[in-house]
Predict the structure.
Amino acid sequence: MKGDGDVLAEITSHLPISPVGAVPPGPPLVDRADPWADARCRDGQSGMLELFFSDQLEDIAQAKALCSDCPVAALCLDGAIERHEPAGVWGGQLFADGQVLAFKRKRGRPPKNAQTQLTA
């Protein structure tokens, strides 16, 4: 009488798949126990560091856009608030001196006369 393993091996011997439990070749599997594994900013090489800590308005907008659909953005923001992060984009929000900024204005001196905006 054949054991269960023998029957399974006989049935699957002609299939082009790996046996159950075998790790297929290719990139390493993502650790699902690590909530940061799916972070959009995580590239494993700190390649986006300058983007998230830039003073340039375009870089800040791009960093916020990356955070906008990140699955761990809320967790990131909560952690940054708890740690009083001094600067950077965290969870889609810009921090400066440990506070969330609503917006960042351009460098340089503001205009003497506030420009009026026309509304329709």
